[in-house]
Amino acid sequence: METYQSQNLPTDFFEEAFLSAWQQIKIAVVIVVGFIPLLVFAVPRLKRVAYLALSSTASYSLLAFITLLAGVLFYLPETITSYHAGQLQRVTLEMFRSERLAFPVQPKENVNDLVVLYQKTAYPRGFPREETPVPWDRQAESLPNIVLVIIETAPYRDVMTPSFEAQLPRIAALRPRALFAHQHFTTSPYSVRSVFSQLTGMYDLPTRKMIADFLMLDDHPSRLDSLPIVLGKLGYESVYYFPLALTHPNEEWMLKYLGFSRIVTGDIGGEGFHSQANMQLKRAREEQMFTRAIADVKTSAAKKQPFLYVLMTSLGHEPIVDIRPEDERLADPNPPRSLIVHNLLGMIDSLTGELLDALKETKLFENTIFIVTADHGVRNRLNDPED
Question: Is 72 found in the same domain as 153?
């Protein structure tokens, strides 16, 4: 994946963003000073040496406690000024990022400077349309339709790979007119939280357990400017499609709060995500969801009403399952992970292609913003073993 190195960025924008050498020294001091007493206590030989300097276990314990407390107090105040929740967790994540880059917490720059900074970070080579301009004839009075296809648990390496066109031929056919956001990342490995961020532009708070806790509803009772609400004011119909019934109260609350006109869920019975017993059932659910969206495309075209359709697929949800026909599974019961993922992506690509065909058939394709993304990557190696 292409990254944008920090040395290429205008340093005046990042006076408060980069982790300073002094901060890193403090981190090292906290770690070294804090953990040496624990090491001494755990190793018998070191413990005997320590007892020569300490008259009792109580004095040693007191020294260790004071050392750790001093270390925490040494660094914690700065984190409190940066975040209202999850201070140590959030800051620690920033410390150990692969790229030493973070946006200012309290920027002194004006909004335009931050927009320029964001553009340079997200598109280091310039906007794709500047590289491969494509004419777009759009009537001023025509509101574009928006379709968002979210691929469940799709790591970057599984989608944007050299074999991208082979795995996703229908989606890859959009490449000549596509904008690629190479440096956009989700902040949570859970669909409910990540979809919330995608539709509001808000990042989650690490220590909050419910979507409702993202918001201080008592202080700010007005609704967020979510995509469904903003577009709804312009006359859009907004629909959220999901192949299963909603079983999580947090998810149902979130979708209603975001202001979707309709929530269309699957009604094909059977087990949920965690069953591998019936692959045909899982396939049927995905097909039903796309079929319903295609029918709505045709209805909206007839009514000439702009729409926002969000399709949340579920095939990629752990455990990673093998959707090949039974005879192929019996002949090769332990295929490599790459083959299983290829088949999952292939089915999503095929169904997405049918949706694209419907947009072309109804003459809406040229006036539709079509977005393909993931909700998040894999949670851990157990859920997603390598080949």
Answer: no
Whole-number Å distance between alpha carbons of 243 and 287: 8
Mean pLDDT, range 256-270, rounded to an integer:
86
Residues β-bridged to residue 148: 310, 371
Contacts of 102 (CB under 8 A, 6+ apart): 17, 18, 19, 94
Give yes or no for a contact between 47 and 21, defined as CB atoms under 8 angstroms apart. no
Distance CA 316, CA 313 (A): 8
The Cα 311–Cα 332 span in angstroms is: 32
Give phi and psi for 320, each to the nearest 5.
-65, 125
Beta bridge partners of 228: none
Q: What is the pLDDT of residues 281-313, one digit of tens each?
A: 778 889 999 999 999 999 999 999 999 999 999
Which of 62, 81, 99 is where one domain is finished? 99
Q: What is the pLDDT of residues 15-48, one digit of tens each?
A: 333 344 445 565 666 666 566 666 665 666 555 5
Helix 191-200 with 249-258: angle, nearest 10 deg: 10
Residue 181 phi, psi (nearest 5): -100, 95
Q: Is the dihedral of CA 181, 1, 378, 332 positive or negative?
A: positive
Provide the domain count of the chain: 2
Q: Residue 49 contacts by C-beta under 8 Å, 6 or more apart in sequence?
A: 40
Domain boundary among 79, 99, 119: 99
Range of the domain at 278: 127-374
Q: Which of 355, 328, 301 is nearest to 142 (CA)?
A: 301
CA distance 293 to 283: 16
